[in-house]
Every structure is written in C-alpha cells, then in structure tokens.
Amino acid sequence: MTDQFKGYDLVGDVHGCGLSLELLLSKLGYSKKDGVYCHPERQMIFLGDIVDRGPRIRESLHIVYDMVQLGAAQIVMGNHEFNFLSYCTEGHEGSGLSYLREHSPRHHRILAETLEQFADYPEEQEMFLQWIREMPIYLEFEHFRVVHACWHQKLIDRFEGEYPNHIIDDRFLHRSSKRGTFEWALTDRLLRGTHLSLPDGEVMVSKDGYRRRFFRTKFWSAEPEYYADVVFQPDPLPEHIARLKLTKQDHNDLLYYGPEEKMLFIGHYWREGVPEPITSNIACLDYSAVKYGKLVAYRLDDEKSIQPDKFVWVNVRTEIADELGL
C-alpha cells in the first residue's frame, strides 16, 4: 500500500445504480465531505462500467467523478465507457466512418439510457466524455492489478512501449475502431475479455435478447479440454456445443493467468450468487447489480491472496427496496 492509504476498496460494475452505490459507500465507511464521498484511511478503485442500463447514470458518474477528482478514488475504463466515447466521436475525414462506433439499432439500444439521461445536459455529457478519454485502461500496484475484463501482459507491454503515458490519445482512439489493429486488439481483450467463436457458424440468443456468435471464456483454466471447461458467462452453452473438444485454434485463442501472478480484480462478467474468489488470485466483482443482483466491493488490505470474507455487497433487490420503503 502507500503511506497515504491503509487499504483499497475495489468496486464492480455500477451501471447507473446510484442508490446502490451510495448505500455501498456507506457500508464501507465512506461519508460526504464538502459533498464528496471519501474515507479517512482508504481509497476506492472502480472497475469501470459506470454508464448504461441503470436509472441513475448521471448521478453515478457525478459521485465517481467527484471522488476521483478529490483523490478519494481511482477508476479504470470499462467497455461501456469506451463504447459511449466511440459512439459519440466522429470519424476522421476519409475514414469512411461517420462515428467510431456505428449508430446501429443494436448499439443505440445498449446506450439508450445513457443518451436519454444526458439529453438535457449536453455540457455534462461532453465533460464526462473528456474524462473517459483520460481514464487508464488498467492499474498495476505492487501486489495487485486492476482491469475491467482481462489482463494480457504481451499487449500491455506493447501498449506501454507505444503509449508511454498509459492513456489513450486521439490516434489510439481512431485506430481502435479498425478491426485488426493493435489498438483494436488491446481494447477488445482488456475491456471485453477472452472469447471463442461458436463452432460451425452457430448463433446463440442470450437472456437479454442479443444474438451472439461467440461466448465469453475463462482465462485461468490450466488444461481445458472441452468448451464447457472454459465458458464463463450467465448464458450456458447449448449441450451439443458444451461437450465438443476444443480445437488447436481454440487453445491458441485462450489465455492463461496462472496462480503465480499478482492478485487480479476484474468486473464485466455478470456473476450471480454469493460473491467469492474465482481462484486464489482472481476476483470478479460484477454481480449483476443492474439486474437486481448485488453491487460488490472487495476490501483489500495487505493480503497476498483473495480472501472469501473480504467481499462486501449491497443486495439490490432487498436492501434498496428497504431503503426506499417499498
């Protein structure tokens, strides 16, 4: 840790759940000082995805932004912040792109709540978009790492060589819109995680109604053999796919984050149930708060492995109802 803070509180995907965030901050001992939440001895680290889906996106962004500006918190970019920024950024002349993220019905549907809640606040939206541009994609400390979806050391090493300040710039942002570039690969892997294509061109329809040709995968399976060994998402694979053997190309596309690596904290993956470690050195803190699950934090002190009793959460379905007197 540092002399300034005695510990860190890492928080998973907020997705506009502003009331849940305030209740979690209170549980963790944060209180308002001159209108900004802070803790006398600890710092909060947000794992990204503050925007989209929830009812209080503007309020959530203000809470987090104010904490970061004060030094009471840090944040890494989530894929939803990156998508929001790309959706609102015009393509360069000659690029063939009106915007870096196509204004398709599917993309608009994902961002609909964010765009709607900022419709009457264009200056605020522009301020937050500029802030998103300045967000780090990952953080690394002496004993732990923080990234929204996946730690990929080779991509990070190249990023640090080509972008020494560790922040995306205009060149990076525009190149990231082109599939096949290094910048596209970095944002896809670190912000969206590892994934495999469904075999034989098959398509899944997820619980949220999206048609998908790929599925999210674990990056900590040492010797997987079957598709079922690596799937990591709320939607199960169809049985006939789950029992198929992984191909040589599938193995090449997977990563392995071993137990000898630093503790890693991620969000992104829509977990359910009681929060617990994935492995001794990996914790996912996204427990589907915006779907009436849990908004989860991990209280990190000086331990060297993830401890099951260090998770703290707000049960959105029950505790927010109690808070509102419902």
List the helices and strands and how they pair.
Elements: E1 7-11, H1 18-27, E2 31-33, E3 36-38, E4 42-46, H2 57-70, E5 73-75, H3 79-87, H4 105-117, H5 122-133, E6 138-140, E7 144-147, H6 153-162, H7 170-175, H8 182-192, E8 195-197, E9 204-205, E10 211-212, E11 214-216, H9 239-242, H10 248-253, E12 263-266, E13 282-284, E14 286-287, E15 294-300, E16 311-315, H11 316-324
Parallel strand pairs: 1-4, 4-5, 7-12, 12-13
Antiparallel strand pairs: 1-15, 2-3, 6-7, 8-11, 9-10, 14-15, 15-16
What is the number of E strands? 16
Q: What's the CATH C level of the largest domain?
A: Alpha Beta
Radius of gyration: 19 Å
Q: Quick one: CATH superfamily of the largest domain?
A: Metallo-dependent phosphatases
Unreliable stretches (pLDDT < 50, length at least 5) are none
The topology string of helices and strands comes to EHEEEHEHHHEEHHHEEEEHHEEEEEH
Report the total helices. Answer: 11
Structural class: alpha/beta
